[in-house]
Amino acid sequence: DEIGLIPCPEARYNRSPIVLVENKLGVESWCVKFLLPYVHNKLLLFRQRKQWLNKDELIDITCTLLLLNPDFTTAWNVRKELILSGTLNPLKDLHLGKLALTKFPKSPETWIHRRWVLQQLIQENSLPNLATKGNLGAAPVERIHRLVQEEMKVCSEAAGRYPSNYNAWSHRIWVLQHLAKLTVKILLDELSSTKYWVSMHVSDHSGFHYRQFLLNSLIRRTVTDNNIVVQNQMVNEQNPSLQKEEESAGTEAACAEEQNVDLPRCLDEEMELCSELIDNYPGHETLWCHSDENLSNSHHSPAASHMAQAMDVDGLNESSSKQGYTQETKRLKRAPVQDSLGPEMEYQFVDKVLSTCRDVDQARFATAYRKWLVTFLGQ
Amino acid sequence: MHVGGEVDVRSAYCAASVASLTNILTPSLFAGTAEWIARCQNWEGGIGGVPGMEAHGGYTFCGVAALVILKQEHLLNLRSLLHWVTGRQMRFEGGFQGRCNKLVDGCYSFWQAGLLPLLHRALHARGDPALSMAHWMFDQLALQEYILLCCQCPAGGLLDKPGKSRDFYHTCYCLSGLAIAQHFGSGDLHNEVVLGIPENCLQATHPVYNIAPEKVARAVMHFLQYPVPSLEPA
After folding, report:
1. Which is catalytic among the residues B8, B56, B62, B88?
2. What pTM does this model have?
3. At the topology level of CATH, where does B9-224 sit?
4. Yes or no, beta carbons of A286 and B101 under 8 Å apart
5. What's the domain range around A96?
6. CA–CA separation, A302 vs A34, rounded Å?
7. Helix, strand, coil percent content, chain A, rounded in steps of 5
8. Taking CB atoms and an 8 Å limit, are A293 and B43 in contact across chains?
9. How far A373 CA lies from chain B's nearest CA (Å)?
């Protein structure tokens, strides 16, 4: 489950340089300068059609190469060909990639190849009559869910191995967008599961950016879902015969409603988290940036959903609109209160930090934040 | 970036760069590209690799330069971009960081500082009266100090930061950044700001293509002689 290089400049004993302890693979460093050129050369000769390699040899050689240097695009591409021809199980590449990332957590080519493999797997999913190799034997939805969870885990580990790991976090976002389809459930799950991680990595700008992405997606999702519910109700009123078709879309949106996305509370909690971390860990620019953006979101989003709702509520039949409308009015009733409390609390918070902090950077960030509050809120 | 490869802002820049220099830039080739790049700008003000991603110096340069080539810089929020990039110059080191809360790196001397000439031009086109006629909107001397004092390898070549080893990539972009920091404007409005002895002065580099401005002119002139190829097979 992990690979590594063992610093060992000379072959001391007459034995294999491969060391396997508790499921972790080590390679003594002296052998790399012999091994890497050897396998590299073999693959190049194959590519130049000067020397033939059968499928098993190709799989072994590329595997060795990639564990030594995962940014070797050609080796990943050979494996792409093997996958497309049906000789290689794509899940093997997910495992190989995961191993490579334990030593090379940033490796761009590994992440890129991983996305290609996942795309192959989703396509396979939508054509259930085709390939069954590597099928986990579960229903497609379940299968995708497991893939997503595994990817979240791989990303999290890689992010822990290298600070502000841009590639790991971009991959995580990509998986949510393309595999998990940004459902409310996954967004909320991810918010709660990354909360502890970011608290342990307060300078990790990428980690906090991820939370911004989750919150922004939730905001967009809530507005869209409310529009869907309202539109469905309108359509059902006008065309009772269409009701069955609309039902599935309506059910999905209704489920989202049942989730009861308490957006103001999510944003509130985020502000609380930020303030707490700023207090405990003075002088981290990332936390202040995150605060800026959160306040901006709290300020804007209830207004945004209010506007969307206002346009759709007009012209609706009273009985059908009641459900959707009541939900919104509850939120709207909270919103004005939200607006007046939020900024005041922020001023209090900043002034408190300024009067009690001893860290030079913290003071600088707090002063800048206060100036920003004044400009942004115009108070 | 290549067939079956990853998609991100860099490829838009590579394509726009090549197409404009070789006179094969047609509207259909880049239909929708400018709008896609604009979607890569995020709440921080900088640009990420793909829409939704964290703002990053390298991708930001590629995005902005591509938009300059496509003459669509106005699609961006230039003010928040300016705010973001100027915040990336490190107050202690003088060099630039690639993203918020990260360490300084010599190569961002070009990716980040190189944005300021582009922004200057875009804001000038809007008739912004506050623009300087002598300096870019970053501390040119501080950047030169960082590059000359911290990024040189005694055996030759340049690097990321002290303690790192030299490589061609860092040598290229440290030098490019140095050139940007030393030269403001061009022609009548050219202003040189050179730290240290006059011999430190490098030739100016073109802020969009990062090759000598004369080379850009020659390439464009050469390819203008040829007609723009059509997409129909011959």
Report:
1. B56
2. 0.81
3. Glycosyltransferase (1.50.10)
4. yes
5. 1-110
6. 63
7. 75, 5, 20
8. yes
9. 16
